[in-house]
Specification:
- InterPro entries: HTH_LacI, LacI/GalR-like_sensor, Lambda_DNA-bd_dom_sf, Peripla_BP_I.
- This protein is an alpha/beta fold and 355 residues long.
- The protein has 3 domains: 12-54, 434 Repressor (Amino-terminal Domain) (Orthogonal Bundle); 68-165 and 304-331, Rossmann fold (3-Layer(aba) Sandwich); 167-297, Rossmann fold.
- It has helices at 12-19, 23-30, 38-51, 57-62, 79-92, 109-121, 136-143, 167-180, 203-217, 233-244, 258-270, 304-319, and strands at residues 68-73, 98-103, 126-130, 147-151, 161-165, 186-191, 225-229, 252-255, 280-284, 298-301, 327-330, 333-335.
- The strands form 2 sheets. The chain has a 6-stranded parallel β-sheet, with helices on both faces. A 6-stranded mixed β-sheet has the order 7-6-8-9-10-12, with helices on both faces.
- The longest helix has 16 residues, at 304-319.
- The radius of gyration is 25 Å and the shape is elongated.
């Protein structure tokens, strides 16, 4: 093996010399090219590790790939996004790809557009956009130049992939659970729509619409009560305060996201009410925080890790050349916990009980 001056940047030629192979062989290993033997890969990887070689991003971009993927988050506070990222990172492990994570801007489409442009300028090989605000036309424009997977939207497109939860089934599970516990005055905390998307494609619209439908199917149209705020702790707090102040106070709250449910929990306690003795509370996402013993929030599990891992797999396939569109739907389950219980003014139906 050749000696190496560690005061300068390691090059592909240094790796080749150290491993006693050609630069072409090193390049093939770095590109994960077809036909590289396990022995060759092991030898080159050993040299890379020993020398601490890091491929130059600009040079890789000139050769066609940067081995980076961009991840666009609406914001960084929602713990569900951590589950999605865990799944994504597990999928990328061992592939040579690194994720560049940016915050889109919450409810600001212009801030989101600038974030997407920043990722494009850095020549990422692909993007995962989580619950983006952009229109389908804007997403398709991005997808024509960069491999794209969209998570959390129910769009149908021929040029990008979609990963989403069956939000209708999830909302049905929550409302059905509360009805079976004898609740009739069930209220819902939803999210304002600041996007450029058709409502039918948005998860919060689907959850709110399903809540209304199930209530109406059970003859409870007059009990429908929706506070439209945001899927944040502040939004949940404000939404719960609004609903609790109504003349006919609900006996159960269904928050469209766990993060909103945490804010609602604060408002309920502030009002001097007990959960679930005075009011039951359910969320959506089944985040790790929901399972903490002192919170014990009933929630819908949409398996964020599976969604993130699937999105990562689809993104790598897109980068690898697949052009056919894929839509992947997760079937949710309900995880009952101590935050839901029998209605204080009704009998449970069908023997249902809170977990």
């Amino acid at each position: 093996m050749t000696a190496y001056d560690r005061r300068r940047r390691v090059t592909i030629a240094d790796v080749a010399g150290h491993a006693q192979v050609s630069t072409t062989a090193v390049s093939k290993v770095l590109r994960n090219a077809y036909g590289v033997s396990p022995a060759m890969r092991e030898k080159v990887q050993a040299a890379i590790d020993e020398l601490g070689y890091r491929p130059h991003a600009a040079a890789r971009a000139m050769r066609g790939r940067t081995f980076t993927v961009g991840v666009l988050l609406p914001h960084i506070r929602n713990p569900f996004f951590a589950d999605v990222l865990d799944g994504l990172m597990d999928q990328l492990a061992g592939t040579g790809y690194q994720a560049i994570i940016v915050q889109g801007g919450g409810a600001d489409p212009e801030a989101e557009r600038r974030a997407v442009e920043a990722l494009t300028d850095r020549q990422v090989d692909g993007m995962l956009m989580i619950a983006p605000l952009a229109s389908k036309a804007d997403l398709e424009e991005t997808a024509r130049t960069t491999a794209l997977v969209v998570l959390g939207r129910h769009d149908r497109s021929a040029v990008y992939d979609s990963v989403f939860d069956d939000d209708e089934t999830g909302a049905e599970l929550v409302v059905g659970h509360l009805l079976a516990l004898g609740h009739r005055r069930i209220a819902h905390i939803s999210q304002k729509d600041g996007s450029r998307v058709r409502p039918a494609e948005l998860l919060h619209t689907i959850r709110a619409r399903t809540y209304r439908r199930v209530m109406e199917e059970h003859g409870l149209a007059d009990e429908v009560a929706v506070a439209t705020t945001s899927y944040t702790e502040e939004g949940g707090y404000l939404g719960a305060r609004e609903l609790l102040a109504r003349p006919s106070r609900p006996t159960a709250l269904f928050a469209g996201a766990d993060l909103a449910a945490f804010g609602a929990l604060a408002a309920i306690h502030e009002a001097g009410l007990a959960v679930p003795g005075d009011i039951s509370l359910a969320g959506y996402d089944n985040t790790r925080t929901a399972a903490l013993a002192h919170i014990s929030l009933t929630s819908v599990d949409q398996d964020g890790a599976t969604m993130g891992g699937t999105a990562g797999r689809l993104l790598l396939e897109r980068i690898g050349g697949r052009t056919s569109a894929v839509r992947f739907s997760v079937t949710p389950t309900l995880v009952p916990r101590r935050s839901t219980g029998p209605s204080p003014d009704g009998e449970t139906r069908g023997g249902a009980a809170a977990g």
